[in-house]
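Supplementary Methods S3. Input chains for the assembly prediction are listed below.
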Amino acid sequence: MQNVLVTGGAGFIGSNFIRYLLNHDNAAHIVNLDALTYAGTLENLRNLPDEGRHTFIQGDITDPDTLAAVFTDHAIDTVVHFAAETHVDRSITGPQRFIQTNVVGTMNLLDAARQAWQKPDGAYASGVRFHHISTDEVFGALAAGEPAFDEQTSYAPRSPYAASKAASDHLVRAYFHSFGLPVTITNCSNNYGPHQFPEKLIPLMILNAVEGKPLPLYGDGQQIRDWLYVEDHCEAIYCVLEKGAVGETYGVGGENQPTNQTIVETICDILDEWLPKASFGSRRSLIHYVSDRPGHDRRYAMNIEKIRKELGWQPSEDLDSGLRKTIAWYLENSAWIESIRAKPDFQAWMEENYGRRSVLA
Ligand SMILES: Cc1cn([C@H]2C[C@H](O)[C@@H](COP(=O)(O)OP(=O)(O)O[C@H]3O[C@H](C)C(=O)[C@H](O)[C@H]3O)O2)c(=O)[nH]c1=O
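Predicted structure tokens for the full assembly:
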């Protein structure tokens, strides 16, 4: 792994991965290709360790010419593909962009890798790897008590976002089987941690609770996610790049499965402990139950026995300490928050989203 193309490296997980790689791998040079859509920001790349090994290029994976030039100009030997539209609510109000970026963009990237790496005899340059970052949402929804998803679970996506990621996973496997492209895939559970865009549950609730704004829980708030601290996720990806077998898929989860209500209550309690007492009393009083997300998946959970047994990875962050680190980061990074808030798309989305949901209780 010498010249690593990270797509979507100005986003939440991608920028955390770049930091992780620069800290843990002395040799890797990173080319970060990011379109800087609403969720990507150069603020995520401030103060990188060993900055000289990071090159930023603004560009879109839906443009094949951009991709061909990046592979040629930078002699890319490894791809770690994060670039995607990721917010389920946005996929419900506007699926088009999800298909363009997540499906067409992934296929373009697979084509570019194949063109750059495949020799005339059909063999590939040695040591090349295409790693695809995916999600446990491709497996659909679990009921309470059902066993967690694993690598054998059938695909059953239910949101346009999940369907687009399922399609991208199928394409990556198709390029392995049809063209021999050396691929690996990870399907991760819900990430949280520093630099996450505040449209997602945890950062939205932190910022609203700090400001005394309503905390909108969808439906009954009893949905379950499997929360994975982003640095644990980055470690898992690095582990798969180092030790994972070509053609294989690995599930990555956090083994923390509280209800959404418990997560939000815990955030409120930590802020009550850390900040001066609010005039309205406990921050839990800000919780409002609002109309549910259409087709809301009840529960996700990822079985991690394969990656644990075969590659020796397991998450190390427990939810309470991970949440405390995350909340501390948001409290200490007001400049980052202001830069996100200044984005016109952020304001428009928050207004539209709050307007759409009626407060039920
Ligand atoms: C924003 C928001 C969310 N929620 C609920 C909806 C979900 O049950 C849970 C988490 O929602 P969020 O939108 O943060 O994430 P998911 O829909 O679970 O999907 C996330 O995790 C997977 C793995 C990905 O692959 C997605 O890219 C990622 O966005 O909280 C609320 O109750 N209120 C809110 O205001």
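The pocket of dTDP-4-keto-6-deoxyglucose is lined by residues 86-88, 135-137, 189-190, 200-201, 204, 216-218, 223, 225, 260, 293 (CB under 6 Å). The chain has twelve helices and eleven strands.
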